[in-house]
Amino acid sequence: MVFLMLLSSCGGDDYTYNPVPTEIPGEDSTDDDPGQTVAISDEELMDFIQEETFKYFWDFAEENSGGARERYHPNEPGRDTNVVATGGTGFGLMALLVGMERGYITREQGLERLQTLLDFLENADRFHGVWSHWINGTNGSVIPFSPQDNGGDLVETAFLTQGLICVKEYFKDGTQEEKVLAQQADELWKGVEWDWYTQNQNALFWHWSPNFGFQINLELKGYNEVLIAYVLAAASPDHSISKEVYANGWASNGGIQSGNTQYGFPLLVRHPGAQQYGGPLFWAHYSYLGLKPRGLSDEYVNYWNVNVNHSNINYSYCAENPKNFEDYGEDCWGLTASYTRNNDGSIGYNAHHPANDTGVISPTAAISSIPYTPTESFRAMHYFYRHKDKLLGPAGFYDAFSPEYNFWVAEAYLAIDQGPQIIMIENHRTELLWNLFMQNEDVRQGLEKLGFQYSN
Predict the structure, then answer these.
(1) In 3D, which of 312, 310, 332 has the Cα closest to residue 321?
(2) Residue 438, SS3 per DSSP
(3) pLDDT 10s digits, 255-311
(4) Is 191 exposed, middle or buried (0-12, 13-18, 19+ CB in 10 A)?
C-alpha cells in the first residue's frame, strides 16, 4: 500500500520560542475547592493544542536547516537529529505561517527562519526538480529511505510544494525582503519536473533514482493521499501534465468511485485494502492542508463529502467498538498511520484503520479531522486533554496511545502527524491555509485544466 511509504530550532536565530510547557488552562482542580474542576472551552483547547504543537516545528526543528525532523523522541534527543522530512517540512512551512498569525513568533522571526529553510531547500539534492523523502540537514544530501529509494520522491515533494505555495501567497505583497522570499518559494516549486515522473505514460510515478531509474514503479493511483500531486502537476507552468494523466492515473477512468456504504455514510471512493470502512484518516488530511475540499469536485466525486463521510465512518467504528477495546467510544477515537504498540510493548509503526485496528488511537486522526467532524473531534480533544498527564509531551500530544494496554503511550512524535493538527485546526477556525493556497493563480489554472469545480 502506498501509505506505508509515508513513515515519516534553527541555528543562528536570536530568538528561541520558549520550550517551557505552556501554563495549562482549565480542567484542573481549583484552589478554593480541590475537588472541583474547571472546564476548558473549545476555543481555549484549540489555542492550547496549536501552541503546543507549534513547538515541534520551532523548538525541535533540525538545527542547521530549520526543516522538520522526521521524528522526535524526547527520551532519545539525539536520535535522527539531522534527518529532515521533506513532506513534514512542507507541513512545517504552513505551521510557521500559523505561528506568525497566532503570535507565537513575530513576522520577522518567521521570515528569518523561512529564509534559512528556503536557502537550504534551494541547495539540497534534487532529482529532476524533485526532493528526496529524507534530506541530511547538515549538507542537503539525500538520505536513502530504502535501498532503491535514494532519489526523487514526488509525493513528499508535493506536500512540500503545497507549503511553498502558501509561503509565496502569504508574503507576496509584503516588504521588499518578503517579496524576495515569496519569489524564491515560487521558483522552487516551479522547478519540479512533474512531467518527467510520468515516464511518458498517462500516470504519475512516485520515485525516480539516478541509480535505479523508475524500478520501484509505484504509480500514483487513488484513492489515497496523493491527489495534491496531480493538482500541482497540472498547475505547473513549465512541467504540466494533461488531463488524461489525471483521469487514467488518479481516477482510473472512473474506477476510483465506490458504491459502498457504512454506518449510513457512502464511502464514495475506493479505498485500497480498506473497502468496508475506509483507510487511515491521513488520507483526508495530507492533500487537503492547502487544497480546500469544501466545494471541491471533479467529474467523479465531491471531495468534501468523501472526507466528511470517511471521518464519520472512522468515528462510528470506534464508537461501536466491535473489538471491545478499552476506552474506545464517542470521546476516544481516531485511527490513522502513526507509531504503534508492538506485541512486546515496544514502539513500531502501523497504518491503523478499522480493518487494521490494533487498539491504538492516534490523536492526530481526530484532531486533524476537525473541519469534517467538529463535534466528534472536540469530544476527542477534550478526552486527550483530560489525560494530559499521560498524553502531553514537550511538543503537543504524543503520537499514539492505547488504553487497552495499561494506557500505553508512544512518547514520541512524527512531523507528518503533528503538522496536520495545527494546520487543520487553523483551517477550521479561519481557513488561512485554504485561502492562501486556493488564491494562487497557477493552482486555479491547474484545477480548471483537470475539470474541477471549487469554491473561493
Answers:
(1) 332
(2) helix
(3) 999 999 999 999 999 999 999 999 999 999 999 999 999 999 999 999 999 999 999
(4) middle
DSSP string, 91-157: HHHHHHHHHHHHTSS-HHHHHHHHHHHHHHHHHS--BTTBPPSEEETTT--EE-SBTTB-SEEHHHH
Largest Cα–Cα distance of the chain, in whole Å?
72
Q: State which amino acid sits at residue 296.
A: L
Alpha carbon 455 to chain centroid, angstroms = 22
In this structure, what DSSP letter does residue 439 have? T
Residue 338 has φ and ψ, to the nearest 5°, of -170, 180
Q: Is the dihedral of CA 293, 296, 300, 306 positive or negative?
A: positive
CA–CA separation, 35 and 40 (whole Å):
16
Show the domains of the chain with their CATH numbers. Answer: 8-19+40-449 (1.50.10.140)
Cell numbers linked to 258: 465506490
| Residue-wise pLDDT tens digits, 73-95 | 999 989 999 999 999 999 999 99
**In angstroms, how far is CA 379 from the centroid of its own chain?**
21
